[in-house]
Amino acid sequence: PSVRGENLRFKESDVFNLLKEVFIPWLNAYRFFVQQVERYEKEEGELFEYEESVMGKSSNVMDRWILSFTQSLLSFVHQEMAAYRLYTVTPRLVKFVDNLTNWYVRFNRKRLKGDTNKEDCERALETLYSVLFCMIRVMAPFTPFITETMYQNLKRALKPGALGQGDTNSVHYLMVPQPVRKLICPEIEACVSILQSVVELGRYLRDKVNTPMKYPLPEVVVIHKDQQILNDVLRLESYVKDELNVKSVTVSTDKEKYGVSLRADMNFKLLGARLKGDVKKVQQKVAELKDEEIQTMLSSGSIELLGHQIDASELIVRYSFTGERASELASKYEAHSDNTALILLDITPSQEMLDEGLAREVVNRVQKLRKKAKLVPTDEVTVWYHVDNKYADLSRILSSHLEYIETSTKTPCRPLYQKNSTSVIIDEVVEIKEASLRLVITQGICSGWALTSAAVSTVDSEGAKGGMTCPWVNIILDGPPRFGVSSCSGTLLLENPVGSSVINSCQELLEAAHSVWGFPLKHAKLHVERKEVPGSVKVSTLSGKTVVITYTSCKVPVATSALRPYSKYVNVESSSKKGCVLLENPCGDGILPAAKFEEIVKRVLNVHANPKLYTDVSRKKPLQLNGVSLAKLNGMTVYA
C-alpha cells in the first residue's frame, strides 16, 4: 500500500538486513541455549526448570546487566508502541540482539557450558532463559511464526502455573510483559557500556597493527579524567583481559604521563573545493590546533576557522606522542579513543607471548580439523603431526607447548613418525605463519598419553629412588572439567601424613576429585583399565594406580596407566611424621607459592610455628625458599 504516492513496504534490502542483524543472531542464541540445557540435563541427571521468582537473584555483573538492559528495552517498547512510533523500536531491538549474542553469550560461554560450577551454570541458564522468554513475547507481533515455535519449546521448562491463569497454548494469547523496575540498574548498564567501548577500541588497534587476537599482548592502558569510569573498568578487568588477550590492565587519569596528544590534518578531498583560495591559510590553522581545541571540536562536532565552519568529519585526527620519551612511547603503544575513553595498547609482545600465540594457532588448526572430520569432544582420537626441519620455530613450539596444546584440545598429540597402525580419520596439511604443518587424526587414544599429558617432570636421583611417601592415586577426568580448570589430570593422597587416612572409601575419592574438577557426581564412576570399580572395593587397593572418572551414563572410559604421580610433589619428614605436599593439583594449575607451602607443611607435620626445612637428612643444608620456584623441588624430600 502507499500513501501520497510513497511506498510504505519494506524494501528487500531492509528485510534482509533485519533478518541478518536481528532474527538470525537471535535464533542462534536460542539454539545455543537449547543445546546447553540438553547438556545440563544429561550431565546433571535432572531437569532444568524455570520460575520467575529466581529472576534477578544472580550476583554476576553480566547477568544483572543483560536483565537490566532487557527491562529498559521493555519500558522503551511500551512507551513507543503507545505513541505508535514503531520505527523507533527496531534500532533498539538490533542493539539488544547485539548485546545478547555478541556480548552476553560470548562473555558467558564457559558459565553456560558448565565449565565453572553447577550453581553458576544454573544462574547463567536462568538469566538467558528469562531474557529469551521475555523477548519472544515482545517480538511475537513482528515475527509470529518463529516466536511461536520458540515459545512451544521454551515453555516446557516452565514450572506448572508459572504463567498464571488463562489460555497459555500460544504465545499470541499472552500479554507483552511489563518492565520490572527493580531490575533496571543504570549504573551497571553504564559500567558495561564502558567495557564495550574499551574492548572495541582494543579490537580496532589490533586490526590496525595486524595482530591476531590469538597472540597475547603485555598491556592495555585506559585513560580518562573521571576516576569512577576507571573504577568501572577495573571492576570488569577480567573481561577486558580475556577479550583483548592482554596480560594486564592499567588505568590512569594522567594523559600527560604517557605524552599522548591529538593533532589534526585537513582532508583536502572534502575541503579543497569548498575553501578555494583560503585552503593554505585554513591548513596552517588546523596544524596549529592544540589538543584541548581538538577535543572540544570532537565533542561539539565542528569548529570555526577563519570564518569557515569546519565539520569534525572533514578533518583527519591522529594521536602523537610528545616529550622526552616520545620515540620510545610511539614504538611501544598504539592509541585510539572515542567519546568514552582513550586507550593505549602495548604492541610489543615478548618472545614468550609470541610463542604462546603460535601455540594457540596450532590449537586452532587442530580444532578446525576435528570439526571438519565431524568429531565431537567425547570422541577418542589421537593427533599426529609433522613439520619440515626448515620450520624450526614451529617445531620448537610443538615441543615446548605440547602440554598446553593437548590440554586445550583434550587430545593427545604425537610426532607422525611414532604413528601406529590405527585407522586414519583425516589427513591434511595446514598453514601457520607461512609454515606447513601436517596433521593426521586417527581413531583411539595412543598408549602412554596420561603420563605425558600430566607433564610429569624428571626428578633428581635421590628423590626418584624413594618416590612419594604417602599412598596416592592418579586421577584422569574423562570429560570437560569445571571450576575454571583446564587440565583433566592430577593426583590425590589417600593418607597424609603416613598412617592418617584422608580418603576412606570410593565415594570419598569421588567427592575429593569433585572438589578439584567440579564434575557432576550423580552418574560419576571410577574405572581402572576400562573396568568399573565397585563402590565396595577398599580404596587402599587403588594406591599407585590411575583411576579414570566418567560422569555421563554409558560412557566408555579411556584406558591408561602411569608409574608415578601426575602432580608435582615434595615429601616432608620430621622426627615423628612423614607426609607429602602436592605442589600443583590439577596438573598445570600453577605451583604453590612459598607461604602456602609452609602452611601445608605445618599442618601435615602438626607443628605450630614455621619449621626450619633442610634438604638433607642430617639437617645441615637449609632449604632456601626466597625467590626459588618450588617446581625445582619436585620429587625431593625435605626435612624439618
Automatic annotation (TrEMBL):
Annotated EC: 6.1.1.5
Secretion signal, residue range per the UniProt entry: none
Keyword Protein biosynthesis in record: yes
Catalytically driven reaction(s): tRNA(Ile) + L-isoleucine + ATP = L-isoleucyl-tRNA(Ile) + AMP + diphosphate
Keyword line: Aminoacyl-tRNA synthetase, ATP-binding, Ligase, Nucleotide-binding, Protein biosynthesis
Domain Isoleucine--tRNA ligase cytoplasmic ubiquitin-like: 468-552, 565-639
Keyword Nucleotide-binding among record annotations: yes
Example of a GO MF term: tRNA binding
Record-annotated Methionyl/Valyl/Leucyl/Isoleucyl-tRNA synthetase anticodon-binding domain positions: 63-218
Pfam families the record matches: Anticodon_1 (PF08264), DUF5915 (PF19302), Ubiquitin_IARS1 (PF23567)
GO biological process, one term: isoleucyl-tRNA aminoacylation
Similarity comment: family membership: Belongs to the class-I aminoacyl-tRNA synthetase family.
Protein name as annotated: isoleucine--tRNA ligase
